[in-house]
């Protein structure tokens, strides 16, 4: 046979293998039994952009839910001391509707509710970092830090140098950062801490050839625990932009400092993540010291991850929305809700609940922001009030309802937080905390404009088409 025939045979084999791989991948996606929306999104990408779609699926689409980061026995050992403290306290009770939510988190997430806590709220990085540094220098036994981003800039170096100072004083320090969130950070930045005796680990390190199995599942949590009795949780990372903002305008975020036994929940979350990476199970009483009553707040630390059986925080938010009687206020930088959460918000608004959603007028990521805007017409049609923050970038993840329930943490209202990220939120069943966060929301509302459905529908067809196209990819973003 001549060369032309061999070339034809070779090309036919290549095409056959190519289509076989694509069709097999589509078959695997279907057998994975995910939500129909997500399944169809992957099928469309694989069908219309086969090469790019296959690569994207390898990097971002493969499910790891059947993997276990820690055994039941290991978790039981880790939670033994918090459980003993929980059982020793008087019965904790919340309003009836919120009691069901608290019980749900206890059963599904093993999140233990503790009373007698103190909560301090920060709405800017300067005040939060100031208090964090004070607590770092007050530490006597250990400091545990876990951040999605720990940047090599003025803020990151300030915290790093403070940790080095305390390590030299004999304080045991462990730092956990996300490998993808800190991709651009030079290794030397962490090496300086390692050289001073600080234990530093990256979460789910992404390296070839195992790159594709881990890049999509990121640790988005922001947790600090100091001496087992003081903790921080919220939306702020350790980076200069959280202080200076992006370009024009400020960076609006929300973080809380916790004092009381609710910190046991933060400690458990950190030590679980540490075990998942280091395979060292830390259960000493030194990490769960006796804590006296610090205040009057009933709180609960709730985590979610992509490897568990349930979507804990997402399902809890749905319960909260559906049980709301008067109002439900939400701040989130990204709004790419799944069908369940979107329906819950619309149903609450249609039932007469005052549902308010606050988003940044300008996003930090063009693609995700365009996708977020595609949902606004449907929200407004159901009666949801949309407020666009115009003073800068709104990165706050704050929710409050009925002057009874509130939550602050790392969870955004999007597919990624609900399905792919390791997240952590503090839930408070307390009127005083709810009122504080409600006042913060209303103060931010003054720096927003209320979006009108009539005006919104007059935006250009170019924007409408762009938003609709990006929305097709929402389950994958």
UniProtKB/TrEMBL annotation:
Signal peptide: none annotated. It comes from the Bacteria. It catalyses: 2 a 1,2-diacyl-sn-glycero-3-phospho-(1'-sn-glycerol) = a cardiolipin + glycerol. One of its GO terms (biological process) is cardiolipin biosynthetic process. One of its GO terms (cellular component) is plasma membrane. One of its GO terms (molecular function) is cardiolipin synthase activity. Keywords: Cell membrane, Lipid biosynthesis, Lipid metabolism, Membrane, Phospholipid biosynthesis, Phospholipid metabolism, Repeat, Transferase, Transmembrane, Transmembrane helix. It is found in: Cell membrane. It is a multi-pass membrane protein. Belongs to the phospholipase D family. Cardiolipin synthase subfamily. This is Cardiolipin synthase. It comes from Phocaeicola plebeius. The lineage of its organism: Bacteria, Pseudomonadati, Bacteroidota, Bacteroidia, Bacteroidales.
């Amino acid at each position: 046979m001549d060369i032309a025939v061999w070339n034809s045979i070779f090309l036919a084999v290549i095409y056959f293998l190519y289509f076989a791989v694509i069709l097999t991948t589509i078959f695997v996606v279907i057998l994975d039994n995910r939500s129909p929306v997500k399944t169809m999104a992957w099928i469309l990408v694989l069908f219309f952009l086969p090469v790019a779609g296959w690569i994207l699926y390898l990097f971002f689409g493969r499910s790891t839910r059947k993997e276990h980061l820690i055994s039941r026995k290991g978790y039981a050992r880790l939670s033994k001391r918090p459980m003993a403290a929980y059982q020793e306290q008087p019965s904790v009770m919340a309003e009836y509707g919120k009691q069901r939510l608290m019980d749900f988190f206890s059963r599904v997430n093993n999140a233990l509710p503790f009373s007698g806590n103190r909560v301090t709220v920060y709405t800017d990085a300067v005040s939060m970092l100031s208090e964090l540094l004070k607590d770092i220098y007050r530490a006597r036994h250990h400091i545990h830090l876990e951040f999605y981003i720990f940047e090599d800039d003025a803020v990151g170096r300030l915290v790093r140098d403070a940790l080095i100072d305390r390590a030299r004083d004999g304080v045991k320090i462990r730092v956990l950062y996300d490998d993808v969130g800190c991709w651009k950070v030079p290794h030397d930045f962490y090496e300086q801490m390692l050289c001073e005796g600080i234990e530093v680990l990256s979460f789910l390190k992404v390296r070839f050839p195992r790159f594709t199995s881990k890049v999509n599942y990121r640790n988005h949590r922001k947790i600090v625990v100091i001496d087992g009795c003081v903790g921080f949780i919220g939306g702020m990372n350790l980076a200069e932009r959280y202080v200076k903002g992006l370009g024009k305008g400020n960076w609006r975020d929300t973080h809380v400092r916790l004092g009381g036994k609710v910190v046991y929940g933060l400690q458990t979350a950190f030590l679980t993540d540490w075990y998942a990476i280091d395979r060292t199970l830390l259960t000493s009483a030194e990490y769960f010291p006796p804590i006296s009553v610090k205040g009057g707040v009933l709180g609960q630390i709730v985590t979610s991850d992509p490897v568990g059986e349930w979507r804990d925080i997402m399902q809890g938010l749905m319960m909260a929305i559906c049980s709301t009687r008067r109002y439900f206020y939400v701040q989130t930088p990204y709004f790419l809700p799944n069908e369940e959460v979107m329906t819950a918000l619309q149903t609450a608004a249609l039932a007469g609940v005052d549902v308010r959603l606050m988003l940044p007028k300008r996003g930090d990521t063009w693609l995700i922001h365009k996708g977020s805007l595609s949902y606004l017409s449907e929200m407004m049609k159901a009666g949801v009030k949309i407020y666009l923050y115009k003073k800068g970038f709104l990165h706050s993840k704050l929710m409050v309802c009925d002057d009874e329930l509130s939550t602050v943490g790392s969870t955004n209202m999007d597919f990624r937080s609900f399905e792919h990220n390791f997240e952590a939120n503090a839930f408070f069943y307390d009127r005083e905390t709810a009122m504080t966060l409600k006042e913060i929301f209303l103060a931010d509302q003054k720096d927003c404009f209320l979006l009108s459905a009539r005006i919104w529908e007059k935006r250009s067809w170019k924007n409408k088409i762009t938003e609709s196209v990006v929305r097709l990819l929402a389950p994958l973003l």
